[in-house]
Amino acid sequence: MNPIHQQIINKQIEKSGIPEKWWGKTIQDIEVRPLFITGPVGVGKTYYMAAMLYAQWQRVVQEKQEWPVITWTGAPGLLFRLRSSFTPGALETEKQIIDHYTKVDWLYLDDLGADKPSDWVRASLYLIIDTLYQMGKNLVVSSNLSLSELSEIYDDRLTSRIMEMCRVKTMTGVDKRGRK
Ligand SMILES: Nc1ncnc2c1ncn2[C@@H]1O[C@H](COP(=O)(O)OP(=O)(O)OP(=O)(O)O)[C@@H](O)[C@H]1O
Ligand SMILES: [Mg+2]
To answer: What's the whole-model pTM score?
Structure first.
């Protein structure tokens, strides 16, 4: 690949917020589209999302597509930030966080459902997803839970929006982490 293109892709991958462990992961001929990826621990959901992010930037750069804003976050990290914003003397407001995750063209949200959110956090996450939904933005989510299990932690209004925004991809198999 053109080394300048490669540099741009790497820079954009880094800027998206994806942890370094996942930089440069690829899966051949991966389709880039809004997805809800569900499956048990260690089957490769995050890897798949990382490969999709990489493929997306590759295509943007090589095909000179319109430049998208793409943000990656782990749901536990996002929920922690939201929780922190509710404490006295917080460094950032809930509105700043919500703006950050909604002023995007694509949001990659890894590991949703790993937490037990408070009502406030749940409401903020709903606001983020609903804003993306209303604005016709793109969402890629991974979760150990199915959409119906997620409905029990969040609510039907959240999962119903995810269902409309994303195609469901169910990953199966064994935990790849054990194999070294
Ligand atoms: N297609 C792949 N090729 C090579 N390695 C892979 C692939 N998919 C997953 N792995 C490796 O297997 C391990 C588990 O993958 P990953 O973390 O993506 O699973 P996960 O489904 O997101 O798990 P969890 O539910 O715990 O978040 C990682 O070390 C990852 O690098
Ligand atoms: Mg994962």
So the answer is: 0.97
